[in-house]
């Protein structure tokens, strides 16, 4: 522990170590807080060693014979942590629960996605009674627009006996997050913040004309070149290609992650680089070839995408995105960890989780498509991805390089990112019907009201309300105090400060009116100008008071300050009116509850069979429940049932194509959807029948190659559709009680859970 010495006192600093590693200050503080039995939030830049804190906690809890849960935002990270902890503690000590797989669920250490934990706490799973700690890796995902609610609900509903460790990248309002968690859990939560990176990062922009430069030099070159350009010149700047950047950095800055916000571009750019570059020695090339044979068997059985990956990987180049098959992603990640991949083109999902050996990070563009529009990367997105650069113990520095097209500098200037202006975490709380049903099943009326008051949104709004009220009171005091040199004529036209500018404006208006001439003066706009002149002449008929010049200057300055104060007070009162009502979420709860009463899910505050079923369904819970209770499932065979479920909640990407085959009659599903929408609104149901042809064919036993020909989906997307269908079948199995249906759902799962779609061995 470090101690502040007195005068003339020697400083003794004992360095705490963990598994032979000397801890950084923030790691020591985090471990001390854990030892004291506190809940802890660690906010530190990517790559600074937050994972060590989690490892220490896991080891400590397990050595004391207690249970602990580790949650991660994505399945890939959950799978990786499962593998790591199995090696540390043994197969019997570690379990995993994701939508894909359930293994050793009674183990003292459970790895799961955050959604699984949310589902456990919201249904009051008794298995949580023996868990002493919950770890939220990447807790800043609370800010995610689509999934942030999962983190918020998990934190609100986590049992009081369960301590919490949250690991986060640097966030602007970490103190607000910790205050919220402490207030709802009624405990002191330690905030451990670290802004310093052990391996510092350097940030550069790159264009073919400029080379690697900072932001100021980029603009300086651009303006000088524009000013010196001849009018007859065509394109002033040379186009910049990703290969130009790689050529510049490949000698000193590899391994590199090259972020591209397009799956197709990932593969295309990797292929282009492989035509001109080879980063592996013959022995390393043989290692890669052996790894492919070990993972995928004889080359005659490989898919075209696997052959492409092999052609690239033997040169130390690869690509990685969600459209790859799970086995392909795993191999690429393993090769990268072994430093056999030197340039990896990837989408931003690679910025989450495992600390890969990266010296530099490249950006093909600083704009991304968010599902609706192209927009600049946010500060936190840029620094999260850049933070992957710089390997502790290997690199003195990490590097971030952003590609810039100088031909579009004025039209689309590159953002200037600032680590000190990170966007604050904000609540993304959304109320689902599943949440309504589970709250109704497990909490009293008063507890439900308190639940919504505990949301991060309510906490933030309350804080904002208090801050605005305090600022308004301060401004009002300043406004009322201003006036030492302001007389009773202030704010009237008897005051020269207000009279003279308006008199000048009136004179200009008169001149404009005279310039119109008699004919145009008689038109509509001319008559309107005449009315305005007459009104202002009446208001300015009385000359203003005569004031000494010195007093007039003081009065003018104070009036200017008062107007500023007045404008800010108007803005604050407007902001106060736009803040959500404190009962907003509870009112929404009541509204959704009434809809569920109307549909026969709730009666007199008790869940009916439909409600009890829907509280265990987490995807399109109303549509799935209505399907179960409609008897529709009994009218179709197992393959059609699988096909039907695959269409639920599927969202196609732009330009997705599917063959049209008569899989089943969609009319009954459309009727159910219209019924639900008539009560709950058009957004309450979502499905896409086109994808059903894939799962129907797979369920019938077709090979993966045959199924591939039915659409233009990437291989990984096809696997994802099948795995999501299996996950929904598993949810239905947990929700129903009828033995015959339970058996049938198990058979349907077995028909899908095979060959390429089966979960990789963990």
TrEMBL record:
Pfam families hit by this protein: DEAD, DSHCT
Any GO BP annotation: nuclear-transcribed mRNA catabolic process, 3'-5' exonucleolytic nonsense-mediated decay
Cited CDD domains: SF2_C_Ski2 (cd18795)
SUPFAM superfamilies for this protein: P-loop containing nucleoside triphosphate hydrolases
PROSITE patterns: HELICASE_ATP_BIND_1, HELICASE_CTER
Keyword Nucleotide-binding attached: yes
Residue ranges annotated for the Helicase C-terminal domain, each copy included: 248-433
Ranges where the Helicase ATP-binding domain occurs: 31-189
Recorded superkingdom: Bacteria
Record Gene3D superfamilies: 1.10.3380.30, P-loop containing nucleotide triphosphate hydrolases (3.40.50.300)
Keywords in alphabetical order: ATP-binding, Helicase, Hydrolase, Nucleotide-binding
GO CC term (a single one): Ski complex
PANTHER family referenced in this protein's UniProt entry, alphabetically: ATP-DEPENDENT RNA AND DNA HELICASE, ATP-DEPENDENT RNA HELICASE SUPV3L1, MITOCHONDRIAL-RELATED
The protein, known as: DEAD/DEAH box helicase
Organism this protein belongs to: Desulfitobacterium chlororespirans DSM 11544
């Amino acid at each position: 522990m470090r101690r502040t010495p007195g005068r003339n006192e020697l400083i003794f600093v004992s360095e705490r170590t963990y598994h032979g590693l000397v801890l950084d200050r923030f790691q020591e503080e985090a471990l001390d807080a854990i030892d004291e039995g506190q809940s802890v939030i660690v906010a530190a830049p990517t790559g600074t060693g937050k994972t060590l804190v989690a490892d220490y906690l896991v080891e400590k809890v397990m050595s004391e014979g207690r249970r602990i849960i580790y949650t991660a935002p994505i399945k890939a990270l959950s799978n990786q942590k499962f593998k790591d902890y199995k090696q540390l503690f043994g197969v019997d000590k570690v379990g995993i629960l994701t939508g894909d797989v359930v293994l050793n669920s009674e183990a003292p250490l459970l790895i799961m996605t955050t959604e699984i934990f949310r589902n456990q706490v919201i249904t009051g799973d008794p298995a949580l009674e023996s868990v002493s700690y919950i770890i939220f890796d990447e807790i800043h995902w609370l800010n995610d627009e689509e999934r942030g609610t999962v983190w918020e609900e998990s934190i609100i509903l986590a049992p009081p006996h369960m301590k919490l460790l949250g690991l986060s990248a640097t966030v602007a309002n970490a103190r607000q997050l910790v205050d919220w968690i402490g207030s709802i859990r009624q405990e002191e939560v330690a905030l451990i913040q670290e802004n310093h990176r052990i391996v510092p990062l350097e940030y550069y922009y790159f264009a073919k004309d400029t080379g690697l430069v900072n932001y100021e030099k980029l603009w300086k070159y651009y303006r000088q070149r524009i000013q010196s350009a001849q009018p007859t010149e065509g394109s002033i700047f040379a186009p910049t290609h990703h290969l130009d950047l790689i050529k510049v950095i490949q000698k000193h800055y590899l391994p590199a992650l090259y972020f591209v916000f397009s799956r197709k571009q990932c593969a295309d750019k990797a292929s282009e680089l492989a035509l001109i570059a080879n980063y592996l020695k013959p022995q390393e090339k043989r290692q890669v070839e052996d790894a492919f044979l070990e993972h995928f068997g004889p080359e005659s059985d490989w898919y075209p995408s696997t052959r492409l990956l092999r052609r690239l990987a033997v040169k130390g180049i690869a690509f990685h995105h969600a459209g790859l098959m799970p086995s392909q992603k795993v191999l690429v990640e393993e090769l990268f960890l072994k430093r056999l991949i030197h340039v990896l083109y990837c989408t931003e999902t690679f910025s989450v989780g495992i600390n890969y050996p990266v010296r530099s990070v490249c950006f093909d563009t600083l704009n991304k498509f968010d599902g609706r529009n192209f927009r600049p990367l946010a500060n936190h997105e840029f620094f999260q991805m850049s933070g992957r650069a710089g390997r502790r113990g290997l690199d003195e520095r990490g590097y971030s390089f952003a590609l810039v097209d100088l031909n579009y500098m004025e039209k689309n200037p590159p953002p200037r990112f600032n680590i000190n202006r990170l966007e604050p975490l904000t609540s993304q709380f959304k109320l689902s019907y599943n949440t309504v049903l589970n709250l109704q099943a497990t909490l009293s009326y008063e507890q439900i009201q308190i639940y919504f008051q505990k949301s991060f949104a309510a906490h933030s709004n309350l804080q904002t309300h208090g801050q605005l009220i305090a600022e308004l009171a301060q401004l009002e005091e300043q406004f009322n105090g201003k006036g030492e040199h302001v007389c009773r004529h202030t704010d009237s036209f008897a005051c020269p400060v207000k009279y003279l500018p308006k008199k000048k404006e009136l004179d200009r208006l008169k001149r404009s009116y005279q310039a119109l001439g008699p004919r145009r003066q008689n038109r509509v706009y001319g008559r309107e100008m005449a009315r305005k002149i007459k009104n202002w002449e009446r208001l300015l008929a009385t000359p203003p008071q005569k004031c000494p010049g010195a007093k007039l200057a003081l009065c003018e300055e104070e009036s200017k300050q008062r107007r500023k104060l007045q404008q800010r007070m108007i803005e604050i009162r407007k902001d106060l009116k736009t803040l959500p009502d404190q009962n907003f979420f509870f009112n929404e709860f009541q509204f959704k509850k009434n809809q569920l009463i109307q549909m026969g899910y709730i009666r007199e505050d008790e869940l009916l069979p439909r409600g009890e079923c829907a509280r265990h369904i987490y995807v399109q819970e109303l549509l799935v429940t209505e399907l179960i209770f409609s008897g529709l499932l009994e009218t179709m065979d197992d393959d059609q049932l699988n096909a039907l479920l695959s269409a639920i909640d599927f969202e196609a990407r732009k330009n997705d194509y599917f063959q049209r085959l008569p899989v089943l009659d969609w009319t009954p599903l459309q009727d159910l959807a219209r019924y639900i929408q008539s009560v709950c609104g058009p957004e309450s149901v979502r499905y896409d029948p086109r994808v059903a042809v894939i799962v129907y064919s797979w369920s019938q036993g077709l090979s993966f190659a045959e199924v591939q020909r039915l659409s233009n989906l990437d291989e990984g997307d096809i696997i994802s559709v099948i795995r999501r269908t299996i996950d929904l079948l598993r949810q239905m199995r947990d929700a129903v009680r009828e033995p015959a249906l339970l058996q049938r759902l198990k058979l349907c799962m077995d028909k899908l859970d095979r060959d390429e779609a089966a979960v990789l061995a963990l």
